[in-house]
Design a protein that fits this description.
The complex is a heterotrimer. Chain A is α+β, with helices and mostly antiparallel strands. Chain A contains 4 helices and 9 strands, in the order βββαβββββααβα. Chain A has a 6-stranded antiparallel β-sheet. Chain A has a 3-stranded antiparallel β-sheet with strand order 4-6-7. The longest helix of chain A is centred in the C-terminal third of the chain and has 9 residues. Chain A is globular, with a radius of gyration of 13 Å. Chain A starts with a strand and ends with a helix. By secondary structure, chain B is an alpha/beta fold. Chain B has 2 domains: about 110 residues, Aspartate Aminotransferase, domain 1; about 260 residues, Type I PLP-dependent aspartate aminotransferase-like (Major domain) (Aspartate Aminotransferase, domain 2). Chain B contains 14 helices and 17 strands. In chain B, a hairpin with a 5-residue loop joins β11 and β12. Chain C starts with about 45 loop residues before the first helix and ends in a 12-residue tail after the last helix. The chains are: A alpha+beta, B alpha/beta, C alpha/beta.
Chain lengths: ~120, ~425, ~475
């Protein structure tokens, strides 16, 4: 998973190649949210910006913004999440939310080790 | 004087002693220069008898008309005794919002039933637990349709002027612009609409019947709006839906309106009931409370406030609306009314209203009153006639009849409901005939 | 499980009927009329009555029992209010009748507005907003109009304490403002230093409630309002907690420029299962020119005369008139003395309960409270696994409505308790005993609490299912 990086706001990004990536949320995030009931997503063709909100995730009693790790254009959103948002609870690391294309800047992203350290520090 | 404080002075002293608290400490944190240094300058509290006398006196200074021929957003309808009696039950009146589902299944179910009945009459898939009134319902609906690209709301001049004002008020600081569509013959001018529809149009709002009582070509106008990619909001008088095609069938994406005609007295303007219903794909954009069906731990059917993550107490400044409450008791009443009338009753009410309205017009036309707009109307209509509108109002008022609403020097907006008999309407005509003689 | 009224429906049954049509029948052609019958219930009157009677048995009002819901002020709803508000002279008048035929309505509105001015120390009121949140939106629009009018266009921000009710930031956003959160200090009041750094010429207003959502009066209030005014902003008062201070202190004297009240809280109008309420807005004279259309003009005393630069209108007509009549009835019944007595006893009852519970339920902020207090069940959760929610569900089996849970969000596992003044010592003592018993059970037999409620018509609900797969209306297939 050396192509997978993380953010301090608990998203992960997996680079498929230099110009294509998948974005999701970490296991820590889904656990903190509790039972996820709905995901508000952008549309294919929308632009996303690094460190900006691109959507949100709802549980019964809370809403959490989704912050994009990278800048680019949304190619696809995961249809599965429309009717079965619980997939994010079941397998956060294995369930992509967005497929994005663009020229990515990997600076500012955390490695797996850096992210795990962050979690251990209680963030 | 009442205060409804239960404990006597002695009991209060006992409480202070038992709990070991010092009364002086209660307001110690209030700075001296903030504390009120005098008693409130209000009349001394009155006993129940005196209060009743005072309020009855105030009520007596208002004229209650025997015959009401005025609508324009507030209608006089028959309210079955069973609806008045049942809705007055204290469990319904004094209950709080049903956040504790196990304790409030009765309230939750009554709202679910209201939501279902509104969906049934409008043809929609989902309905919220209500908002303050029809005008703010339209404003909230407009808000549902805006996004980054589509920021213009089209509102015809044939909708209730107070609705138009309310929408403008609600959207004045939001990225939504209101543009007015011109009217012709009292209805939306199709050419004006065509010229205003663009790729930036978020929605077209139509009122059916419109402010002048006229039936708009909702289907045709909705088609135009949809072709431009805009959503269609129809503000429909729910009473008319006993007879008229549903907003859904006419092409509405969102159906809203003033549900006061469904069992609520005129009440000098409030409390009223704004209903909001929409299609499945727009459900999550609905503001306000929504009751949903679910199961409890034992698998029993149960009702609960749901989709709360849309609302202000969770989204705070990111909520699309700050609305917190619903008009629960009014929705309960409307649900009861619809159940008491049933589909045949609702149809009868609508039929009576339109038939009697046409009868009144026909009789008025024998005196020289003419329809201002050459368009089909439901139960409200505008006349111009041989008498000034205020003269008509004054003359009828002195006979205990509230005339139609004076719109201008000669124009009168009449409304006839099932509460007026043929005799009442004949009396109106004979009174006016005398004046003209 | 109660049947839905649609499940009681039987084709052809009738309840209420109209007389025969006495004029010529008018029908519209097929193109305009609905072809299908709407699926609303067909029931006889007796079945309608029994259905709603059964629903009423599954509702719990103030008339049923103790309701210590913090921030909601669930005080007794006097029956005289129901009588006056149903007088024909109030209920059966049309909002667009000629003004000369509704002098009683105008006078009632004037009497209520004047009384509210006196209670709050404000100069004028609009009775149009139909609920607290509606009042907040109105107040913020007034503030925005005020700054616009002075050509002060830089002010795009509103400051809101982190302890504020969600409607505050939501209303600010609707009024076109971005919201900046101001942290609370360790006493639950506004952190004055944080406020100073947040203030600038970009701040339009600070929204505050005092006492705050922790039930504590912020002693720095005069300094706070002075700082905001010096920075050119206005101060907004969320009147949700007015029940603590009527006749004791007034927001108008604390420096607030605009206030909203919740008549369904402080002024005894019934909650109705979630509404209708009424949220009148009071202003200082600098904001009078902007009051919405449909307000009784403060000097002309007419509804047909509007202010100079109205913000528009918040809804049709004049507000929840009958609800306002109930509030007027209440104020007439209590008078100034009675309102003060109500507040003093609200504060007494809250302090009494707090004193007798704080050994077991740690209070969020130590010291005398006002009309409500907040306890935290965090320790209970850590030691026994029992949460604020579990405590609340257990209360249901004792016939007591739970307090407000999980608000304000700055206190973990919060329970906010507001007994109000209209409760006897015996009622309070029983509630105290029950809460103490629940606490003991958390340690001795937590399963009892986790299984609660057991005596309600249903057990705990699956709200995840409700949100994931919403069923929002009756369909024969979906009803099960």
């Amino acid at each position: 998973m050396e192509n997978t990086f993380f953010t301090a706001s608990h998203e992960w990004v997996k680079f498929l190649d230099d110009n294509h990536a998948e974005v999701g949320i970490t296991d820590y995030a889904q656990h903190a949210l509790g039972d996820i009931v709905y995901v508000n997503l952008p549309e294919a063709g929308d632009k996303v910006m690094e460190a900006s909100r691109f959507g949100d995730v709802e549980s019964v009693k809370a809403v959490s913004d989704l912050i994009s790790p990278i800048s680019g254009t949304v190619v696809e959103t995961n249809d599965v999440l429309v009717n079965t948002p619980e997939k994010l609870n079941e397998d956060a690391m294995g369930t992509w939310i967005l497929k994005v294309e663009g020229n990515f800047d990997r600076t500012g992203l955390l490695t797996k080790k850096q992210y795990e350290t962050l979690l251990a520090q209680g963030h | 004087m009442a205060s409804y404080v239960v404990n006597t002075k002695e009991q209060r002293e006992k409480m202070l002693a038992e709990a070991g608290i010092d009364e002086q400490s209660f307001y110690a944190s209030i700075p001296q220069d903030v504390k009120l240094q005098r008693p409130l300058n209000l009349p001394k509290g009155k006993s129940e008898l005196e209060v009743l006398r005072h309020m009855k006196h105030l009520a007596s200074l208002n004229t209650v008309y025997d015959v009401v021929l005025r609508g324009a957003g507030s209608e006089s309808h028959f309210i079955p005794a069973v609806v008045r009696q049942l809705s007055a039950r204290e469990e319904f009146v004094t209950a709080y919002t049903p956040y504790q589902a196990e304790l409030s299944q009765g309230i939750l179910q009554s709202i679910f039933e209201y939501q279902s009945s509104i969906c049934a009459i409008t043809g929609m898939d989902a309905c919220n637990a209500s908002v303050y009134d029809g005008a703010s319902a339209v404003a909230e609906a407009v808000n549902m349709t805006g996004d980054r690209k589509r920021t213009v709301a089209l509102l015809p001049k044939s909708i209730h002027p107070e609705t138009l004002e309310t929408v403008k008020t609600y959207t004045q600081w939001l990225p939504i612009t209101v543009k007015e569509v011109e009217i012709k013959d009292g209805k939306v001018d199709v050419e004006s609409l065509k010229s205003l529809l663009t790729q930036e149009t978020a929605c077209l709002v139509l009122q059916q019947p419109n402010y002048f009582g006229i039936l708009e070509d909702v289907e045709g106008l909705a088609k135009l709006a949809h072709e431009a990619g805009a959503k269609v909001i129809v503000s429909a008088n729910p009473m008319t839906l006993g007879v008229l095609k549903t907003p859904r069938e006419q092409g509405a994406d969102i159906a809203v309106g003033e549900a006061q005609p469904l069992g609520l007295p005129m009440s000098f303007g409030g409390p009223y009931l704004g209903y909001m219903a929409t299609t499945t794909d727009m459900v999550r954009r609905l503001p306000g409370r929504i009751v949903g069906q679910t199961k409890d731990l034992d698998g029993k059917r149960a009702f609960v406030l749901t989709l709360q993550a849309r609302e202000q107490h969770i989204r705070r400044e990111k909520a699309s609306s700050s609305i917190c409450s619903n008009q629960a008791h009014c929705a309960l009443t409307a649900g009861m009314y619809l159940a008491a009338m049933g589909p045949q009753g609702l149809k009868d009410v609508a039929t009576h209203c339109t038939s009697k309205a046409h009868y009144l017009f026909n009789q008025l036309s024998t005196l020289g009153f003419k329809l201002r707009y050459d368009s089909s109307f439901f139960h409200e209509f505008v006349t111009d006639g041989p008498l000034s509108s205020h003269k008509v109002e004054d003359v009828l008022s002195s006979h205990g009849i509230l005339s139609g609403l004076p719109l201008d020097e000669t124009g009168i907006l009449w409304c006839v409901t099932e509460t007026s008999t043929k005799n009442d309407l004949d009396r109106v005509v004979s009174i006016l005939k005398e004046v003209l003689a | 499980m109660s049947k839905l009224i649609f499940e009681l429906s039987s084709v052809g049954r009738r309840c209420s009927e109209l007389p025969p049509l006495d004029v010529e029948l008018i029908e519209f052609d097929e193109a305009l009329t609905r072809q299908s019958t709407p699926s609303i219930p067909e029931v006889a009157e007796v079945d309608l009555v029994r259905h709603y009677m059964e629903l009423s048995r599954q509702a719990f009002g103030v008339d049923n029992g103790f309701y210590p819901l913090g921030s909601c002020t669930m005080k007794y709803n006097p029956k005289i209010n129901e009588e006056t508000s149903s007088l024909a002279g109030f209920a059966q008048i049309h909002p667009l009748q000629p003004e000369s035929t509704v002098n009683g309505a105008l006078q009632s509105m004037d009497e209520l507005s004047s009384a509210l001015c006196e209670v709050t120390g404000m100069d004028a009121f609009t009775l149009q907003p139909s609920a607290g949140a509606h009042g907040e939106f109105t107040g913020l629009l007034l503030i925005h109009a005020y700054h616009q009018h002075r050509n002060d266009l830089k002010r795009t921000k509103v400051l809101v304490p982190d302890s504020a009710h969600g409607t505050n930031p939501a209303s600010a956003a609707m009024a076109g403002y971005s919201v900046i959160s101001v942290p609370s200090n360790d006493k639950g009041g506004v952190d004055v230093d944080a406020l100073k750094s947040a203030l600038s010429d970009e701040v339009a207003a600070l929204m505050l409630t005092n006492p705050n959502t922790l039930g504590l009066f912020d002693p720095n209030i005069l300094e706070i309002s002075r700082l905001v005014h010096e920075a050119g902003g206005l101060v907004y008062y969320d009147g949700a907690n007015l029940n603590a201070i009527m006749g004791i202190a007034r927001p108008g004297d604390m420096g607030f420029d605009v206030v909203h009240l919740n008549l369904h809280k402080t002024f005894s109008t019934p909650h109705g299962g979630g509404g209708p309420g009424s949220g009148p807005v009071g202003v200082k004279s600098c904001l009078i020119p902007f009051l919405p259309k449909g307000t009784l003009h403060p000097t002309e005393k007419k509804l047909t005369v509007s202010s100079e630069f109205p913000i528009g209108r918040m809804r049709s007509f004049y507000g929840n008139f009958l609800t306002n009549i109930r509030a007027l009835t209440y104020i007439l019944s209590l008078g100034g003395e009675g309102l003060k007595e109500a507040s003093e006893n609200a504060v007494l009852n809250a302090n009494y309960m707090m004193a007798k519970l704080s050994d077991l339920y740690p209070v969020a902020y130590v010291g005398p409270c006002m009309h409500e207090f907040v306890v935290s069940c965090q320790k209970l959760k850590d030691e026994t696994g029992i949460t604020a929610k579990d405590v609340s569900k257990a209360l249901l089996d004792y016939g007591i409505h739970p307090p407000t849970m999980y608000f304000p969000n700055i206190v973990h596992e919060a329970l906010m308790i507001e007994p109000t003044e209209t409760e006897s010592k015996e009622t309070l003592d029983r509630a105290i005993d029950v809460l103490r018993e629940i606490h003991a059970l958390a340690y001795s037999n937590p399963q009892v609490l986790l299984d609660a409620p057991k005596t309600m018509p249903i057990k705990r609900v699956d709200d995840v299912l409700a949100a994931r797969h919403p069923i929002l209306k009756y369909t024969p297939e979906g009803a099960q």
